[in-house]
Amino acid sequence: MHAHADTHLDQSITGRFKYAIILTAITLVAELAGGLWTNSLALLSDAAHVFLDLFALLLSLGAIKLASYPVSDTRTFGWHRMEVFASFINGSTVFLIAGIITYEAVVRFIHPEEVKSLEMLIIAFIGLVMNLISAGALHSHSHDDLNVHSAFLHVIGDAAASVGVIIGGIIMYFTNWYLLDAVISIGIGFIIFWGSWRVMRESVHILLEGVPRGIEVEQVSAAILEVEGVEEVHHVNIWTICSHILALSGHIVVIPTFKGEHGPILRRIEERLFERFHISHTTLQLETSRCTDMEGAKQFRHRPRAASLAHAHAHPHHHPHGTCQGGHHHQHDHTP
């Protein structure tokens, strides 16, 4: 049931991306031809912006295709992380675009240039209409999908640029106040800076295996403790695989009198995590006694270096304190 819904969602997002790509390509051709026809540097610069938008949309669509590939023995999490990589690249390119826009605006602020405002208005209006249609196609999925949100940000940034060009063009047409072109461009540049920074920050947070935004480990642990038969929770790790897949691993100490009910306890925990926190991928280890005195998330152990291995073979030693030994363990990996 969930797989069918996910497939339908991916098809819907893919269709909207294709629609936005076609419209963006039309905008690119129109602004490139218009810039050459009117000898307008502003339109040619915006055409370069639209080209990067088109690249971002193609990148995002490619990420969705790769994420649909099944898991394998060499990629046990599949290709879902490609969505996050695409989001980071998209955010980075928007950040770069904002820097270019701001730089050019400062140059024009110092040295104002005459603008062919009427021709610029016509082409900019066409670009605005195309961008608004593309943004409308992506908007419904932009709130809960980082990949779509980053692509949506590209289109909105270009639409904002078009609005700035139109407003400035109207004023310049009647006043010949060409300095306004630079002032509007600086404002647009700062807006794009902020949006792109948010996308980059979120994608880096995911790539660094950070706890998903809006989720606290203490709250999740408390929810697990509410399940009948659970005595204690420790070594909890929570991370994001992609925008729609949250994962959790942890150790669960079961009350001794519930020793024969590990299966039902696991199902109740998984249902609660999915309903309250949308955590769909869980790896839980059930124990009859606490395996360590350490608190908080489990600390990772680095793979031994060659020199360390040679030393260990020459001088055998016991496992360090804090590793899980003794008691009954049950590992379970579940994706609803």
How would you describe this protein?
- There is one protein chain.
- The chain is α+β, with helices and mostly antiparallel strands and 336 residues long.
- Helices cover 62% and strands 11% of the residues.
- The protein is built from nine helices and four strands.
- Strands 1-2-3-4 form a four-stranded mixed sheet.
- Strand 1 and strand 2 form a beta hairpin.
- It is elongated, with a radius of gyration of 27 Å.
- The N terminus is likely disordered.
Strand order, biggest sheet?
1-2-3-4
Q: How would you state the average pLDDT, rounded?
A: 78
Beta-strand segment tally: 4
Described by strand count, sense and barrel closure, the largest sheet is: 4 strands, mixed
Uncertain regions spanning at least 5 consecutive residues: 1-5, 325-330
Q: Given the helix and strand composition, which structural class is it?
A: alpha+beta
Order of helices and strands: HHHHHHHEEHEHE
Share of residues in helices? 55-70%
Number of helices: 9
Oligomeric status: single chain
Strand content: 5-15%
**Distance separating the two termini:** 10 Å
Q: What gyration radius follows from the Cα positions, in whole Å? A: 27 Å
What general form does the structure show? elongated
